[in-house]
C-alpha cells in the first residue's frame, strides 16, 4: 500500500459531510487527506428552526470554514456539477476540476411543495410566515388550522412540533377556541417510532386538545377546504405542511428513477469501490439528520479500512433518535428500526441532548459551538 495519504473528497457541507470529516479524523488519522467541496459560507443547524416562530429556539449559523478546519479538513468553495467516476474526476458549477481517491457524496436532497395551497414550512425562511399565522389565530382572524403531513414527507416530526407549540402559544394568548388538527397518512402518530411512542404521542395530542385524522392523505388546500383521500375534505382556515424530498441528479452519477443514489450496507455507491454517499441524497426512504450521520459513519469506517486503519467496518443499522419540542416539556424519542424497540422519556435518552444525534458531530458542536441547552430553552 502506498504511504501517500488517500485524498478523500466530500461533496457537501451539511450534517453528513461534517460527521464524515470528523469520523475520518478520528479513525483514519493521517492516513487520509480530507477536503470538503461546498458552496456555503455557513453551516446552519436547521433542526431548531421549528421553534423560531414561537420564540423558543432558533436555527444557528456557524462559519463553515472554521468548523472544517477544526475537523482537520480543508474547505474548497464550489458545487459538484458533474463527475466521471471512472477517471475519479469531477467539475464544479464554475468549471473547476476536482479529483479524488475516494469520493463521498453528501449533498442532501432537493425539496418540493408537499400540499399545494398550504404554508410549506421548510425552515428559517418560513418562520416569519408561520409566526404571522399564529398571531392571526390569536387575534381571532383564523379559527382553524390543519397541520398536514404530505404523503411523501419522509420525516413528519417537525409537523407535530409545529402543531404542539402553536397550541401552547395560542392557549397562553387566551385563544382557546382555535381548532388545531393534524392530518396524516400515518396509521398512528409518529408511527415510525413504534407503538409505545405512538401511544404516548396520541395521549399528548389528546391532552392538548389537538385533533388527529390518521390514515388520511392531504392532497391540496383551496377555498377553505383541505382535500384528502379518502373521505370528505377537512374544513380549515389555514393549512401548514412540510416539503417532500426530491432527487438531485448529477451528470455521471448513477441514480434511481427518482434521482436518489443507491448504496449498499456500507454506504458504497452500487458498482463503484471508491464512491460513497450519505444523507438525504441516498435512496434510503427516511430523510433525517441522525440517519444521515449513521450513513456517514458506515462510509467512514469503510474508507478508514481502505486507508489501512485497524477498523472492521460495521454496516449501516438505522436507529431513530428524535427530540420532540412540545412548547412545554420536550420528549426524547428512540426507536431501533430493525427490531421495533422504542422508548419515550422527558429526560435525555442520549448525550449531548441534541436535535441531530451524531456519534462525532453532536459532541463536536457541543464543544466548539456551545450548542445543546436545547431542552431547557424549549420548555
**Arrangement of strands in the largest sheet:** 5-2-1-9-20
Top-tier CATH class of the largest domain: Alpha Beta
Look at the structure and name the CATH superfamily of the largest domain. FAD/NAD(P)-binding domain
Largest sheet: 5 strands, parallel
Please give the share of residues in helix. Answer: 10-25%
What does this structure look like?
With 379 residues, the protein is of the alpha/beta class. It folds into 2 domains: 6-109 and 247-319, FAD/NAD(P)-binding domain (3-Layer(bba) Sandwich), CATH 3.50.50; 114-243, FAD/NAD(P)-binding domain. It is built from 8 helices and 23 strands. The chain has helices at 15-27, 64-70, 127-138, 157-172, 195-208, 289-306, 361-368, 374-377; strands at residues 6-11, 32-38, 42-45, 60-63, 74-77, 80-84, 89-92, 97-99, 102-105, 110-112, 119-120, 144-148, 179-183, 211-213, 217-222, 225-229, 234-235, 238-241, 244-246, 275-277, 319-324, 331-336, 342-345. The strands form 7 sheets. It has a 5-stranded parallel beta sheet with strand order 5-2-1-9-20, covered by helices on one side. A hairpin with a 6-residue loop joins strand 21 (319-324) and strand 22. Helix 1 packs parallel to helix 6 (289-306). Residues 374-379 have low confidence and may be disordered.
From the structure above, extract its key features.
FAD/NAD(P)-binding domain, disordered C terminus, elongated, 379 residues
